[in-house]
Design brief:
five-stranded mixed β-barrel; binds 5'-deoxyadenosine; four-stranded parallel beta sheet; about 35% helix; alpha/beta
Length: about 425
């Protein structure tokens, strides 16, 4: 989401004739698209903004803009302005579409601006030019905001309530991207399964959106994130099973394997319900692989709760997990819970979880060795000369010796080796 919003901000700058600078010193405009999901993200941003102080003192015309989730937090714009008076523009996630006007105003009036909206204008956002930076990948928002209020999460406070984009606009955008040669389209929403809930027409829902997108001609893959286990329906799984383009890799954030913690997180499902979704999906889509998000050290998480998470991870057998230590976010319900877990316990828990996952992911990787599989070639490897990287339909990364000209192509790769979570292969010469 953040990467794609940065592409929209860069699109505004490109439309105004700016081009990408090679260094911060050289840049006329510096935009920080901030994240607020965990405290560590905020600390990093604070450090990075602070580092510009002396440069801004030397180059007063350089424009520094701050946007994103952190600037939408209550009281944060004022706090930022007080800490860093040299900031020129502060705007929020809800008015990203105003960036062009704010920039013009700042250039003309030479005065700093804080403008945080409480409501978005998504029609205006639809017409923003996007400066796409992700090679063969294109990101497409299908909705903005979140209605779920998981008790640990700041997102509903900084991104507001769910707003779905018009289905025709989305389908047209995806068709255009496919026409332009993008090979992997990722549909984005905080909870894509509630797409259309805010639109009166009941036929506008996620399953139908996937059907419409799947009917587009061309050679391309479709992914989406994230799905909330409380909302994913059998119908959506059936659509994936019967589709041509929708990938068999499902990101299904579980957050915890303990029913008590899931209840305290306000997640509205149990581990039993979660297992039933996994079972249904595996029955309908035998080669499906799962990834997930997990939080360790949520307030009150006992050893038993944590062991339930390890047990769930073991039973599901995830291809990959994104594990986080619970981070207190001001204004959320969990921040006020009394039984906060000490950092040393969180560290131990995340380490053990990641160690377990490494073994599971290695076993899953092993299964691929010897098989010939379709790979989308994404990029040159940043690690070794003459090596390309791509992904399997399940989303798993594969490296192989190959030429840069293969970028953006679907090729058959024979998997020859697996090392921990990474697969290696060679072009299949049959
Ligand atoms: N602390 C730690 N992790 C969090 N996430 C969201 N809020 C927090 C928090 N306060 C994680 C969740 C979510 C992912 C995007 O970030 O696992 O799925
Ligand atoms: Fe946060 Fe929960 Fe919404 Fe995801 S569904 S963005 S975790 S509140």
């Amino acid at each position: 989401m953040n990467v794609h919003e940065s592409e929209k901000l860069a699109g505004v700058l490109e439309s105004k004739g700016y081009s990408v600078a090679t260094s911060v010193e050289e840049a006329d405009v510096i935009v920080f698209n901030t994240c607020a999901i965990r405290e560590s993200a905020e600390q990093k941003i604070m450090g990075n903004i602070g580092a510009l102080k002396s440069m801004k003192a030397r180059h007063k015309d350089k424009i520094i803009a701050i946007c994103g989730c952190m600037s939408q937090e209550e009281g944060m714009p004022e706090k930022l302005k007080a800490k860093f008076p040299f900031i020129d523009i502060i705007f929020g996630t809800l008015n990203i579409e105003d960036f062009a006007e704010l920039l013009d105003k700042r250039v003309k009036e030479k005065k700093s601006i804080i403008q945080i909206a409480s409501k978005s204008n998504i029609k205006k956002r639809d017409s923003m030019h996007v400066y796409r930076t992700s090679g063969v990948n294109a990101w497409v928002n299908i909705m903005y905001g979140c209605n779920n209020f998981c008790t640990y999460c700041i997102v509903p406070y900084v991104r507001g309530r769910e707003i779905s984009r018009d289905i025709e606009v989305i389908v047209k955008e995806v068709a255009e991207l496919v026409g332009l040669g993008y090979k992997q389209i990722t549909l984005l929403g905080q909870n894509v399964n509630s797409y259309g809930n805010d639109i009166d027409d009941p036929s506008v829902n996620f399953a139908n959106l996937l059907r419409r997108i799947d009917a587009i001609d061309g050679q391309f893959w479709v992914r989406f994130m994230s799905s909330h286990p409380k909302d994913i329906s059998h119908e959506v799984i059936d659509v994936i099973a019967n589709s041509k383009h929708i990938c068999h890799g499902l990101h299904l954030p579980v957050q915890s394997g303990s029913n008590e913690i899931l209840r305290k997180m306000n997640r509205h499902y149990t581990r039993e319900k979660y297992f039933s979704i996994i079972d249904y999906a595996r029955k309908k889509i035998p080669d499906i692989e799962f990834t997930t998000d997990i939080i360790v050290g949520f307030p009150g998480e006992t050893k038993q709760d944590y062991n339930d998470t390890l047990d769930l991870v073991q039973k599901v057998g995830y291809q990959n997990i994104f594990a986080f230590m619970y981070s207190r976010r001001t204004g959320t319900v969990a921040d006020k819970m009394s039984d906060q877990i000490p950092i040393n316990i969180k560290r131990k828990r995340i380490k053990k979880l990641l160690d377990l996952e490494r073994d599971i992911a290695s076993d899953i990787s092993e299964k691929y060795v010897g098989k010939v599989l379709k790979v989308l070639v994404e990029d040159v490897s940043p690690k070794a000369e003459g090596v390309m990287i791509g992904s399997l339909n399940s989303g798993k990364a594969v490296s192989f010796y190959g030429d840069k000209s293969l970028q953006g192509r679907f090729v058959d790769i024979k998997i020859t080796k697996s090392k921990l979570t990474t697969l290696f292969g060679e072009l299949d010469k049959k």
